[in-house]
C-alpha cells in the first residue's frame, strides 16, 4: 500500500479487509493496519 494514498482510500480498503476500529485511526495507523491485514490475507490464500 502506498503512503500517497488518501485517508479515504485507506479507510475503504480497511473496511473491505474487515479492519476493526478503523474509524478512530489516523492515516498512518490505517496504512499500518491495511498492510498487516493484507499480509494476513496473503498468508491465508497460500495455505
UniProtKB/TrEMBL annotation:
Pfam families: Rho_N (PF07498)
UniProt-listed SUPFAM superfamilies: Rho N-terminal domain-like (SSF68912)
InterPro entries noted in UniProt: Rho-like_N, Rho_N_sf
Domain of life, per lineage: Bacteria
Protein name from the UniProt record: Rho termination factor-like N-terminal domain-containing protein
Location of region: Disordered: 15-47
Domain Rho termination factor-like N-terminal: start-end pairs: 10-37
Amino acid at each position: 500500500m502506498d503512503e500517497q494514498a488518501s485517508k479515504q482510500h485507506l479507510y475503504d480498503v480497511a473496511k473491505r479487509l474487515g479492519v476493526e476500529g478503523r474509524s478512530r485511526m489516523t492515516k498512518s495507523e490505517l496504512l499500518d493496519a491495511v498492510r498487516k491485514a493484507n499480509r494476513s490475507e496473503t498468508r491465508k490464500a497460500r495455505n
